[in-house]
Structure prediction request, 369 residues.
Amino acid sequence: MKKMTKFALTGLAAGVALAAVSSTAQAQETWTMTTTWPDNLDLIQIDRHWAELVNTLAGDEVQINFRAGGTLMPGTEVFDATQTGAIQAAGDWPGYWAGLSPAFSPLATTTSLFNGVDYLNWINQWGGFELYQEVYGDYNMVYLPYGITNNESGFRGNTPIESIADLEGKRLRLSGRDQGRVLEQLGGSQVTLAGGEIYQAIERGVVDGAEFSTPGVDYKAGFSEVADYWSVPGWHQSASVFGVMINQDAWNALSEETQEKLKIAAQATMAWSLAWSERESTEGTVKFIEDGTEINQLSEEDLAEIQRITNDVIIQGACEDPMHAKVYHSMISYLEHYANWRDISVPYNMSRVTDDLPSLEEIEACMNQ
Prediction:
């Protein structure tokens, strides 16, 4: 009798153990993730880095099947696919969705305002992360910002742009609503093109010039082969943020512990991406120079005029949309607060003296209308 009882208890224990193993196996989520970037654009490395890190840190709980942009659907469709749950996640640049809400634009980049470390600070310590959740949350998504690049290259083409006077009448490929508005006030016109179309547009003279990304990304996209001139600095995008859209239901299916691992992977990727892109930008710049690209730098007077126009455009956008105003109000409040330390530590703390910013009072007036 004792032997039978012992056997029964042993069998029960084995059954419980087997059930636990089966439960763990069933609990593992399998996600399909794609991105806006095809394999031939180097920005895909940021998305791939996060997906691989998640599979390393949380592979027992969620396994991400990452697919390059364009292999599952066009890049323009990844927002809707993630929102509806057709896929669980997609890497993006928030500015692509500014047509849905202008608040996406400053979540992606700023004109003549934030640098890469500003985004890092703001997202992690000054309330930026919560604003990403608020904006994307309206579309049934959680958002983990995980990529930052510093200011973009500037305009490339076969006509030199040596001053803002040279922008008059120019047709330039440019992303972003606010960026386009600034360009228009400088006398140029904005042309919207997907990243994969820029090379041929410059080569065939469809545009007078174009911006895309950092020097490292631009070089690997082959732009030195079709553009002789490079206008710097990249005032139109003083820094950029990339991240992953996650369907809300897919996120909710994860345990809190697994969700935390995905956030940790995002923060680690964010730090990696900034250093990675700066190294790539340095090497790309050297290669452009070696290939004979002529670099033209805008004057301090030109940059001051761009800043003046930018400030007006930011306030204009704030008065048109409450969420747009809320995001910029948070950003400028951060800059003003940070200036207490930043300005007295120049030139050792990222250099910028914060003495010409959009007016918080004017933005607040728009918010209170």
